[in-house]
């Protein structure tokens, strides 16, 4: 289990769908090339496999500047009748602070601030009675890796590889801790949506948000990508391994060929330096492919002809 997101762990997640990918007009087109992936700065989580820092090459690709929004996911569901994993399972994980005092949803072992809420899914993010009507431009959440794959198959896109995600998130900066540099709050300014206050009791919302923020909140990075730190975790296509990359491929790496969980990147509004500082650009996490929570979303990518 990740410290940041609880897991279901009930299904294997299948294989990556081999669908044609077509860049949309909104996508940022990146020429690829060499970059320094990972970190050796010693501030991260060694067990996650953040290091070693290594030179990796990625081919040209395109990526959305934002995560998929509630509005976009609703269009997909309307067109296809898709039923999400959270709906099939009948529950998803919600931060307890978003629930009223009468809620009796079971807490998750070791991370009791997460509750398994019956009826919670992307359209009812806090369970029955909640709505996304005022959150159309917020990232869709409560989506599993399998749900993200289904959206990609419908839209003619794909999930980014972990290497592509980090290349894009760095925005051209070499070895920086965050997408904007090495200081979390340069000149005292908030640059991302993460936990402010005392975790897990009080999120003051000092950065402007307690919970998800609209996908274009805060300044974009050097490549024009928004919210690649904080807000919501983002699924990548790779199976997770803490050590595969140590001696693994350095050109267009895609991770191991099998595994138990899929890579997530970027951190979320639930991250706090006292507990989980995985909003750093080299930080990694993972969850089983059928897992869904109120702080996991995704953005899509596509290949480019050379």
Defining traits:
three-stranded antiparallel beta sheet; 14 strands; paralog of FGE (formylglycine-generating enzyme); alpha+beta; four-stranded mixed beta sheet
Brief rundown of the structure:
This protein is of the alpha+beta class and about 300 residues long.
The sequence of SSEs as H and E is EEEEHHEEEHHEEEEEEE
Question: Which range does the strand content fall in?
Answer: 15-25%
CATH superfamily: paralog of FGE (formylglycine-generating enzyme)
Q: Helical region count?
A: 4
Estimated radius of gyration = 18 Å
Low-confidence stretches: 12-20
**What sort of overall outline do the alpha carbons produce when their principal axes are compared?**
globular
- Whole-number tally of structural domains: 1
Secondary structure: helix percent = 10-25%
Q: State the secondary-structure class.
A: alpha+beta
- How many beta-strand segments? 14
Q: What would the CATH topology be? A: paralog of FGE (formylglycine-generating enzyme)
Distance between the termini: 39 Å
């Amino acid at each position: 289990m990740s410290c940041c997101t609880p897991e279901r762990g009930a299904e294997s997640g299948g294989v990556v769908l081999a669908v044609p990918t077509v860049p949309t007009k909104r996508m940022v087109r990146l020429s690829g090339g060499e970059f320094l992936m990972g970190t050796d700065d010693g501030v991260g989580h060694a067990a996650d496999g953040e290091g070693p820092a290594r030179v990796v090459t990625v081919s040209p690709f395109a990526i959305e500047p934002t995560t998929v929004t509630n509005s976009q996911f609703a269009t997909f569901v309307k067109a296809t009748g898709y039923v999400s994993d959270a709906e099939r399972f009948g529950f998803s994980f919600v931060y307890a602070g978003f629930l009223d005092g009468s809620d009796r949803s079971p807490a998750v072992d070791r991370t009791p601030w997460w509750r398994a809420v019956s009826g919670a899914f992307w359209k009812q993010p806090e369970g029955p009675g909640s709505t996304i009507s005022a959150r159309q431009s917020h990232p869709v959440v409560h989506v599993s890796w399998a749900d993200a794959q289904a959206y990609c198959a419908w839209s003619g896109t794909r999930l980014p590889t972990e290497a592509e995600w980090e290349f894009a998130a760095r925005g051209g900066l070499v070895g920086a801790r965050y997408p904007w540099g090495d200081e979390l709050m340069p000149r005292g300014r908030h640059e991302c949506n993460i936990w402010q206050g005392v975790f897990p009791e009080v999120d003051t919302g000092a950065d402007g948000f307690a919970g998800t923020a609209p996908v274009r909140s805060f300044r974009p990075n050097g490549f024009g990508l928004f919210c690649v730190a904080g807000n919501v975790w983002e699924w990548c296509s790779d199976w997770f391994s803490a050590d595969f990359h140590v001696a693994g491929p350095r050109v267009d790496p895609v991770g191991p060929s099998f595994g138990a969980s899929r890579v997530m990147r970027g951190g979320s509004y639930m991250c706090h330096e006292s507990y989980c500082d995985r909003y750093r650009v080299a930080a990694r996490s993972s969850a089983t492919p059928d897992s869904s929570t109120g702080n996991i979303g995704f953005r899509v990518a596509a290949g480019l002809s050379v």
